[in-house]
Amino acid sequence: MFDFPMQERPKKCRKRFIVSLNGEARVLRDFGKVFSMQLCVEIQRVGDRCPFANESVQFELGRGECLWLQGDSGSGKSSLALHLVGLRTLPDAVIEMEWKGLDSQPSEIGMVFQQGVLIDSLNVAENIGLALRRARLDSSAKSIHKALEEVGLASTHATKMPGELSGGMLRRASLAQVLAQGRPVIVLDEPFVGLDESAASGIVSLIQELMTKGQSFILISHEPQYAEPLATNGRDVHLSASPQVEKASSGRSLPHWNFVVRTGLRLFDYLVISTPLIIFAFLAAGVAISMLFSELLEATSVDALRKQMIDPDPSLFKKLMGVEIFQKFVGYEFDNLTSQHLPEIRRKMFALGISRGFIVELGPMLTALLLAGRIGGSYAGEISMMQATNQNQLLSTLGVSPRRWTLGPAAIAALIAAPILTGIGVGTSILMAKAVAMSSSYGLFDNSQQFWQALAEKALVYPSLWAYPPFVSMYHSLIFMVIILGVAEIAGRMRPGIQPRDVPSAITWAVVGASLLIIVADWGLSQWLLYLSPLQNPLG
Asked: Where are the domains of the chain?
């Protein structure tokens, strides 16, 4: 660990933290408590990964003071603040923090993020109540209203959701949440960005009022007209960007606004990334269903029929008439016939079950149910988030159709991927069926050629194209994919006032709704197929 001496200060009532390169802090001294608070920070740059070029940075912050942390974009202001808060480790830097007059921990520094951040599934009061409970403080309605009052918000705002607040109100509510925990130092990361002059001036006045009450701030801002009135004399630090940080990135080789590029990326996402899911699902389904079907065929026996029709005990008269000899002769012929034809019957029934079950029914429906979550959920989440963050409105103002921007590439990629994934799934299940049918446990087929020949007779010979199993599998998968995308469009785009907190709900509705419609559609398509091509005679 790198360390270096700091300016000698009174050691009375001091708690000191040394932060090493890995960001771990350990308490070196703790001597009691005083009534004043002071935070002293000294940073030494020790490597090229440090985001700022300054060889060393020192600053002090007292009670009721404001430190202005300034510098060009990319100079490490936010990285330094996040390190002080404990959310990120500043690379290639040794930081020494010294608290005086406060029985504190490094986590006593709070932070108000850019543009204000609250948990969007909780209303304002619940957000503040969460902060109070986490700090083991009184979280009653009175305490919450007091916290709102301190930042200039009326109690009527307590029941509002974060998405219902203006930019200035959201920043005030975020500040109220951090203040409620009583943190002595609060980082304000660009608190004036996006605010009009009136709202920004209101935030300045609020911070000044809180400073008079003893609250300390570390202010990150590029707007000197608001930062200068707040910065305490001598409390400002300027960071210079490191040359390594300023280097331009290589960027993307292809522009993502290009329709073909976006379609290709969708196809990769839908097809390549979904393939392992399809393979493993059909591995399990193929083995389980093939074993069940083989067990049922194995249980098909003619022994009971033989005993009832051929082997009843003859009477003495029938014995004298030669009936017993006739029964034995018929039984012998019956055994010869069953030994010759029963295995073939079982093979044909198994092939018919595989053809009708895997290729026509199970393959398209199981693939569609999996893709309802994989593709439908992903697409619904994307378009609902774009709706919630006004990206669709932005596209409209640019003269770009939001539906064409998202639905076009998604539909093309999904309609290409669905039949291919269905084919991969069906092929996987057929290979599993072959392994089960040829295993020593069942022995339905003697060799691979026998299996493929029986399957071809049942899967490739049908009266019309619409009843041809491979074609049935393909158009079933396309119909199911249209259902998936249609439901996702309705769930994600048809709510103009959707908020980010509603995105999980939109995804859930898209997945559940599409799955239910797929099951109903599969039943309807099956009835139509039975009308076109009734089940074949397995002996034919």
From this structure: 259-532
Q: Mutual orientation of helices 323-354 and 402-437 as an angle, nearest 10°?
A: 150
DSSP 8-55: P---TTEEEEEE-TT--EEEEEE----S--EEEEEEEE-STTSSB--S
| Alpha-carbon distance values, 309 to 73, 341, 382, 537 (Å) | 94, 19, 68, 25
Residues 302 and 103: their CA atoms lie apart, in Å, by 88
- C-alpha–C-alpha distance, residues 419 and 470, integer Å: 10
Name the token pair of 99: 């608290």
Q: What is the pTM of this model?
A: 0.69
How does DSSP classify residue 190?
Answer: S
> Within 13 Å of residue 464, how many CA atoms lie on the same side as its CB?
9
According to DSSP, the residues that pair with 57 across neighbouring strands are 43
DSSP-based helix, strand, coil % in the chain, nearest 5? 55, 10, 30
Type and span of the H or E element at 186: strand 185-189
Would you state the torsion angle of the CA atoms of residues 406, 115, 153, 183, taken in this order, to the nearest 10 degrees?
A: 130
- Mean pLDDT, 10 residues at a time, over the chain (540 residues)? 36 35 32 58 89 89 91 86 87 86 64 83 90 88 91 90 87 90 89 86 91 92 90 86 57 65 91 94 92 78 50 49 48 51 78 85 93 94 89 81 91 96 95 90 87 86 81 94 96 83 92 96 90 62
Contacts of 13 (CB under 8 A, 6+ apart): 31, 32, 33, 34, 100, 101
C-beta separation of 64 from 215 below 8 A: yes
Q: What are phi and psi of 41, to 5 degrees?
A: -130, 135
What letter would DSSP give residue 372? I
The pLDDT assigned to 493 comes to 87
* Rg over CA atoms, the chain: 37
Cα separation, 268 vs 439, whole angstroms? 37
